[in-house]
Amino acid sequence: MGQEEQKEEREVLDSIYTDEITDISDTAFTISIKLDTINADGDTSDPPTILLHVSYPEAYPDEAPEIDISAPQDEPSHPYLDVSSDKARILEELAPVIEENMGMAMVFTLVSTIKEAAEQIVSERQASVRAEQEEVIARAEQEENKKFHGTPVTKETFLEWRNAFMIELQEDAQKRKEEKELDDKKKRIAKEDKKMTGRELWEKGLVGKVEEDYEDDGSAIDIEQLRVSG
Fold first, then answer.
1. CA-to-CA distance for 210 and 218, rounded, in angstroms?
2. Above pLDDT 90, what percent of the chain?
3. Is 28 exposed, middle or buried (0-12, 13-18, 19+ CB in 10 A)?
4. Between residues 12 and 177, which one has the greater pLDDT?
C-alpha cells in the first residue's frame, strides 16, 4: 500500500517540478526550491534557493518522510538568508504540517511550507534593515531641523535660561562696580601726586617766595590752594 502511494506521489511531483526534481534512488530525491523575494533598493542579489532532500521510509505516508535542507554548493551567499544557520527554524515549521498530514502524500505541502518560512525570514530581515535605515534618516532630518527651529521652549528650559541670564547680569554689575572702584582709586592717586613741597614749588617758579619753615620741614602744599590765594 505504501509503495503504491509513494509511486503515485512521485509521478505528481515529477509533473509539477519537472526541472527542479532530481532522483537519488527509487525512494529518495531532491527538489530545488527557488524563493520569490523582492530585493530592496540597491540589492542586486539573486533570489536564494533551498534544496529539499526527501527519503521515503517503507511505511510512508503512514510514517513521516526523512527530511533535510541545504543550500546549493555553487550558490553565492544571500544577505538575508543562510540556510545552514536558519535550518532549525525552517524545519521547525514542518513539524505540525507533518503531524497534520500523516497518512497522506505531503511532500508538495512540505515544499510550500519551506518556501513560505524561508521567504518570511528574508522579509523580516529586509524590514529590519529598512527600519534601521529609516531611523538613521529620521535622526539626521531631526538634527537638520534643529538648525532652523531651535530648541522648543518649555517651562523648564525657560527657567533654566532665566536663571543663567540673572547670574550673567549680577556678574556684569559686579564687574562694572569693581572697574569703577579701580578707576576712582587711580584718580585719587593722581590727585595726591599733584601736591608738591615748598622747595619744589620754588624751583619750578610756581610761587614768588615760600617761608623757610615750609621748605625745611618738606610739608606738602596744595597747588590748587596756592593758585586760588594768588
1. 11
2. 47
3. middle
4. 12
